[in-house]
Amino acid sequence: MCGIAGFYQTSFDYTLHPRWLERLEHMKESLQRRGPDQQDTLLYPHAGLAHTRLSIIDLQKGHQPMTRASGSQRCTIVYNGELYNMQELRRQLSGFALSWETDSDTEVILNGYLACGTDFFQQLNGIFAFAIYDASADQLLLCRDRLGVKPLFYQQTAEQEVLFGSEQKALFAGGITPAIQTDGWCEIWGLGPAHTPGHGVFHNMKEVLPGHYLTITGTQIRDHTYWQLEARPHADCYADTVHTVSVLVQDSVKRQMVSDVPICTFLSGGLDSSLVSAICARELARQGQKLQTYSFDFTDNDKNFQANSFQSAQDRPGPEPQTAQWFPRQAGGSQQQQVIHQSIEEKQGIHIDDHRLSPFPRLCAGPPFIQPQWTVPAEIRIVTISEFKQ
Question: Is the pTM value of this prediction over 0.70?
Answer without folding.
Answer: yes
